[in-house]
């Protein structure tokens, strides 16, 4: 694997088989231990195992992985970047009470955990809407109206 900088890793063909084997092993694990050269063991937290699983699975597909450090308290612009929306949209969400925040001085501060909770809630709503739309298509038998070329 080539390392572009200290946080980005690009897989190469030589590591493909090893990455695939490791990805298969990690897919079934919720916990793992790291064994040191001296035989000492340290249990990895579940979140770290999940992060490692995601990274290795991505590397096994031939894609690069970048590890980014994110503060646990974010600015409105950082939240906008994370959610893929504009900063004014984030300010509106905050003002409407969709995402909790504090305002210690003149600037809003948002906890990363609250942003991730909001994003998960939004994705669940979107999945439910898609499920309902799919059911409506099946119930109304609208599949015959789809044109194909």
Automatic annotation (TrEMBL):
Organism of origin: Myceligenerans crystallogenes
Pfam families given in the database record: HTH_17
Domain Helix-turn-helix: 73-121
Protein name as catalogued: Helix-turn-helix domain-containing protein
